[in-house]
């Protein structure tokens, strides 16, 4: 796999030659084309001038910033060049922060940091130091057309992972919303809710969570390709939980959780028994 960035990761006077590789793989998404309903011919988009109503060639198109309704400032290639940050092939860790103190909303896109030849020992040293201190290294990196990004450097297993982070002004201020306080929560309700959470808690297994919507779409597409008729079931609507029946809903949820737990244990027992019989 080709790296998306090559350079060095530094902390203090330690310099580690590294490569960045994407940590996520592109998922095959279902895409659609807009068609003319009458003959199923694809619809073509054109660059039409709103004032003249005519198609504009690419050579006559410029980039403009709308600073007020209908008023623009045009930016040229020279303007973008003047605003660009000097390209750097170094990720300098400026600070370390406790991982527990960083709001997860700041993290955006992960990349594997892979050591280049000669960087193995300082790489392992940094990784272990991050693990033992429970911290995240905070720095900056320029990528793709000199765009500047905030970056978080973490230890994940045997790997160092760099997360492209959002800047503070990119997060929505929560003061715009109204959230309820815990003053109306009764102790017995909280106790039952904690018990319910405990009953549903298990080791995280990402493979058990699938994109059911995409799977259903593919199933429908395959059926329509074969000329089959699709029957659509009406979605079941759930009523919101009212305060008066909150305790009853919690109790019912606990009972469901217990039954599910017993079923899971029974299945696991049968699986183990079948394996023993097979190996005997």
- As residue ranges, the low-confidence spans are none
| Termini Cα gap | 44 Å
The global form is extended
| Sheet of most strands | 7 strands, mixed, barrel
Stated plainly, the CATH topology of the domain at 5-24 and 84-169 is called: Ku70, Chain: A, Domain 2
Q: Biggest sheet, strands in spatial order?
A: 1-2-6-9-8-7-5
The CATH top-level class label of the domain at 5-24 and 84-169: Mainly Beta
Whole-number mean pLDDT: 85
* Element string (H = helix, E = strand): EEEEHEEHEEEHHH
Radius of gyration from the alpha-carbon trace, in angstroms: 28 Å
How many DSSP H or I helices?
5
Please state roughly what percent of the residues sit in beta strands, choosing from under 5%, 5-15%, 15-25%, 25-35%, 35-45% or over 45%: 25-35%
CATH architecture designation of the domain at 5-24 and 84-169: Beta Barrel
Number of DSSP E strands: 9
Give a verbal description of the structure.
By secondary structure, the protein is α+β, with helices and mostly antiparallel strands. Among the domains are: 5-24 and 84-169, Ku70, Chain: A, Domain 2 (Beta Barrel), CATH 2.40.290; 186-199 and 247-275, no CATH class. 30% of the residues lie in helices and 25% in strands. The strands form 2 sheets. It has a 7-stranded mixed beta barrel. The longest helix has 34 residues, at 246-279.
């Amino acid at each position: 796999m080709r790296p998306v960035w090559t350079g060095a990761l530094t902390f203090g006077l330690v310099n580690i030659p590294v490569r960045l590789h994407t940590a996520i793989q592109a998922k095959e998404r279902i895409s659609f084309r807009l068609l003319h309903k009458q003959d199923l011919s694809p619809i073509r988009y054109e660059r039409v001038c709103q004032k003249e109503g005519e198609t504009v060639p690419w050579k006559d198109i410029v980039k403009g910033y709308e600073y007020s309704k209908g008023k623009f400032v045009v930016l040229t290639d020279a303007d973008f060049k003047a605003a660009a940050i000097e390209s750097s092939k170094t990720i300098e860790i400026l600070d370390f922060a406790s991982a527990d103190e960083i709001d997860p909303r700041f993290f955006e896109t992960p990349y594997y940091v892979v050591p280049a030849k000669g960087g193995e020992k300082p790489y392992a040293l940094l990784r272990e130091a991050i693990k033992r201190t429970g911290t995240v290294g905070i720095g900056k990196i320029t990528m793709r057309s000199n765009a500047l990004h905030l970056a978080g450097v973490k230890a994940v297993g045997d790997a160092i992972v760099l997360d492209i982070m959002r800047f503070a002004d990119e997060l929505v201020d929560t003061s715009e919303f109204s959230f309820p306080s815990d003053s109306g929560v009764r102790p017995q309700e909280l106790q039952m809710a904690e018990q319910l959470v405990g009953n549903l808690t298990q080791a995280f297994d990402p493979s058990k969570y699938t994109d059911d919507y995409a799977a259903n779409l593919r199933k429908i597409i395959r059926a329509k390709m074969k000329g089959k008729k699709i029957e659509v079931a009406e979605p079941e609507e759930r009523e919101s939980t009212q305060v008066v029946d909150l305790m009853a809903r919690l109790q019912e949820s606990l009972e469901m959780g217990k039954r599910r737990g017993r079923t899971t244990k029974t299945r696991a027992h049968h699986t183990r028994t079948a394996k023993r019989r097979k190996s005997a």
